Amino acid sequence: MAIKYPNGKKYVPAATGAASKKPALQNSYSNRGMTLEKDLNDTNIFYLERGLAVIHKKPTPVQIVQVDYPKRSAAVIKEAYFQQASTTDYNGVYRGRYVDFEAKETRSATAFPLKNFHEHQIIHMRKVEEQNGISFVIIRFALTEEVFYLPACQLFDYWDRMEQGGRKSITKTEIENTGFLIPKGFQPLIPYLSVIDRLYF
Amino acid sequence: MAIKYPNGKKYVPAATGAASKKPALQNSYSNRGMTLEKDLNDTNIFYLERGLAVIHKKPTPVQIVQVDYPKRSAAVIKEAYFQQASTTDYNGVYRGRYVDFEAKETRSATAFPLKNFHEHQIIHMRKVEEQNGISFVIIRFALTEEVFYLPACQLFDYWDRMEQGGRKSITKTEIENTGFLIPKGFQPLIPYLSVIDRLYF
């Protein structure tokens, strides 16, 4: 189901809209992570359409400062700022269970830098785990196009190691050993529910 | 826990920021529903701090059209538009279960107009129910300050009745009979988990 808004237009993710104004950046910095986001959105639509799970990406949090209300047309936000998310980007429901994850991409071949996560997100994931939710991160190595499912409890170990003065990244070998390679799919592209099935059901 | 962003400022909900630029509207249209939203946010913080549940309001979906990137300062969104949400506003996890709801307020004394919900939200709630999630709406009657928990399955009945040509609202008596009055609390203000306990655990 392609969700359409009342104006009949298809939903265009915010980041794409912004990027379209800055074509020079399309294939460099601003586009980082867009492949993973797009593949996950397609995957979530696949799961949604087939009634397998209801998982959505949360909207980008924005602090709105000024809004114009022109007569006879839609309100226009004239000044706003990106806010740092206090939770993860994706959540929803699968077979009654709460599913919550963050997705990140790296161009490193050998390790995943922990600075990709914010402290708030780690705190959030710990709280989700305490509530018996299914919490994990999806990590994509762009160079090899490998996508891993890393359970949050494993991520906490690496995070705590860093906090105690240890390395600021997770080596790829560690991710291979403590996470799960998500086999590349066609429909869906990133079949992460298969890992949840294996771990929880 | 008051969530603070890296600039050290407390999170200010978008709608408040927008309203502050339009003081004339503060106590009329633009402020409608803010009491309920604020009370629910306080309730969710209460539940979060005590480790009882992890439930958040989703950010307002915004379509970003133009962003300026000034040197040495934060990116400024210069043109953006409010989008209609395709899901409900609140979701999270309670004792492993997925919780999902929408909250609405009315100034009517006798009935709750169904136009407060969008078709997309009803479709979303049906999918959540199919996945065995806990789906409901919170309805506040502003005049009497009564707050009700109405299970989604009941809402579907009223929605379907409207679709079949019936009344376009739910009478207050119907809400009293098929929903649950949430007793007014102090800590938390709207103790909706107590209804979930009664219905699901």
From TrEMBL, chains A, B:
Keywords: Cytoplasm, DNA damage, DNA recombination, DNA repair, Endonuclease, Hydrolase, Magnesium, Metal-binding, Nuclease. InterPro entries: Resolv_RecU (IPR004612), Restrct_endonuc-II-like (IPR011335), tRNA_endonuc-like_dom_sf (IPR011856). Endonuclease that resolves Holliday junction intermediates in genetic recombination. Cleaves mobile four-strand junctions by introducing symmetrical nicks in paired strands. Promotes annealing of linear ssDNA with homologous dsDNA. Required for DNA repair, homologous recombination and chromosome segregation. Belongs to the RecU family. Its cofactor is Mg(2+). Coiled coil: none annotated. This is Holliday junction resolvase RecU. Its main location: cytoplasm. It is found in: Cytoplasm.
